[in-house]
What we know:
Elements: E1 6-12, E2 15-24, E3 27-36, H1 65-70, E4 81-86, E5 90-97, H2 103-115, E6 122-129, E7 135-144, H3 145-158, E8 163-168, E9 181-185, E10 188-192, E11 201-205, H4 209-214, H5 217-224, E12 231-234, E13 247-250, H6 254-267, E14 281-282, H7 290-363
Parallel strand pairs: 1-4, 4-8, 9-12, 12-13
Antiparallel strand pairs: 1-2, 2-3, 5-7, 6-7, 8-14, 9-10, 10-11
Amino acid sequence: MSRPDKTFLIEAGQLCFRIDLQRGPAGYVVSNIVRRATAAEGDQGGVPQGMDTFLSAGGREPVDAERLSELLSQRPRPAREITVLSDRLAAVVTDLPGIGEDWQSSAEMEAPPVTGLASSESVSAATRLSAEAGIIRVWVVQAAMRDLASLRGSVSRAARGSRLVAVGHPAGIRIESPAAQLESWPEVALFHAPGSERIDLRGWNGPDAIADALSDPEVATSLVSTDPETALILAHPGELDSEENGRRLDFSEERATTAWAEALARACDPLSGSILGMPLVSVPKPPPSAATLALSAGACAGAMLLILGAHYGLTQLNRRNLEADLATLKGPADKLATESQRITELKNELKELTTDADGAEISS
């Protein structure tokens, strides 16, 4: 089986599953879904027995990086780039006054009081949504830096050749765009208004988020409508036990995860592969490990030694060539020096003879 083009790791409550997507002529299609059974009651998702569950910034449970990364060991091999969507990350939909264009900075300041995550301990991503005139509606996802570091390390260890590129919240995937959709996640509820717009959200936050959503007149009206039937996305079993109408999709059921995976594939841009309209926190490449640095230093030292050795060898070769040329030229040079000395001696003898001859003539 060929390697997929995109791999998503999803964490919804105690349920983890992996979705592989393959690029087709008309966009992405689901090629494989790997499910992990819901953790047993009392299971702390990979935390050794007897240890307290570590709470990340904001008092939230941390993303269970180990359980998610175990899905990467399944066949086929995952894609080279991994995206994690976890409901343990903080998600906020909030309305800002429609003043100025720097709405991203305003969104970053609005989110921490709701999520409990300080800006210094987290990173965030924001998307602007459609809203009434005079209002800027933003969808913000925040991730604790500790969660990002844990996820990045777990993914790199579990799948060689793959790396974590982005993290986000699984909320916001629309199952059927003509129908209204109500989503219930831990401390966040989202409502998609009926219509063709894929991203047309309203949101509520806090422990009573779903109750606040159900008390909204627009949401209440959509729940009594049956044409088309409202989709209810339930991240946890047992939610919405009252008599609300709607097509219930409980993530503990296989059909729900299959329908959600197909909707995720439709939400991916056929060209860029990004999830259209969803805020995703980009994860930079990890710094090189100590072993990699040591290997690189060794390679550089080896290369330098090779260069120095080659330079020394060429120098010695040139020296030997010069010595050979000098030895070849030494014979003629010595002969030329001898002949030059002989010529000098003959000139001196000639000069003496000339002097003697001139003296004889004067005497006579």
